[in-house]
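User: hey, got a sec? need STE20 related adaptor beta folded
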Amino acid sequence: FLLQFEEEQGLSMLTLSSILAVRFHLQSTLWIAGRGFNNLSQVNMARYIPTGQLVAVKQTNLDECTEEELLQLMNEVLLSRLFRHSNLLTSRLVFSSCCQLWVLTPLMAYGSADTLLRTYFPDGMSESLIAYLLHGVLKALEYLHRMGYVHRGVKASHILLSGEGRVYLSGLHSVYSMMREGKRMRAVFDMPHHSPALLPWLSPELLRQDLHGYGVKSDIYSLGIVACELVSGRVPFQDMPPTQMLLQKLRGSHCCLLDVAPFPLGELGGLKVSRSGVDSGIGESVATGSLSHSATAPPTDRPQSPAPKNHSVTLHNLVQLCLQQQPERRPSASALLTHAFFKQVKRHTRDSFLSLMYPAVPLTSPEDPPVSCPPAPSCHAPTSASTDTTEAVWDF
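Assistant: Yep! Here you go:
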């Protein structure tokens, strides 16, 4: 029944009675927050009654998973025990009950960056908010790369934001170890599972699948695609057939920032990029101008999404560095953390960046939730009900 319980001070084993106690203390009526893991898992919001804390519960029916998917789930569970970083989303509790796998994690009240784009920022986010999100992702990648792992699934739906404003990188089921027999390999050759859904974000060297393989710099390329995704609200290459996408990436061309046409990376130096930095700092975006408004303001008073037309030179340079065709020319995650684009992150507090989230509001539970009842042993998950159902993409 039990896999593992993770606490602040360490790991301790749970007995069957302890598992039933945890399920008893969880709100029996779970509010649907979205789906994940290739639509095989249902992500719910639940309340831990003793403390009143809201948590996320991911339930997966193991009978519906293939052997490869079961291996991915096992990999995710094991890595959750291994990793310790404030910007990586790891599980607090993992156990199986009959045919259901339960994974409890902290609630990401703002959901994923992908959901924020589709719901509140269809034309892209402000550069300040983008810098804050990417900075958190880079810190997680720096940790993973130092540990000898490549993520292989960096995309907006794997970037989650808590109600307190902390950025988390999820998607541990796609992580791959570069360590073999105690030694770190220079390159790996494994193709990620369910790679068709990841094609727009994957690097040219990973897609090429040749004798050179790929390494941690593949994640840096994916970060560049995510930057374009957050800027425009659209995923580069997404509307292309796979073959054309591969040819475009191998040629080194890409469609990215809205204020320039598609171009090869080598020609970036010849472009006349605006140095005005229209949306490069707090106080310069349309969203920042809304700080005096209440989050409950009428829809007519809400500003439109920023949709900047001219991007700062530092953002252009960041994207150029990340999307270099040759992986050895891309900077490491540690080097990118010192990039000029992220200077604005150090000058402001977490609360000031949360102000840029307007008009997005954190996910909350319905008022007056029902009283919990002890669950009966069953192979089926508890019945989900919600008075405020929000279907989102929580891609754990």
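Quick note: The two ends are 22 Å apart (CA to CA). Let me know if you need anything else on STE20 related adaptor beta.
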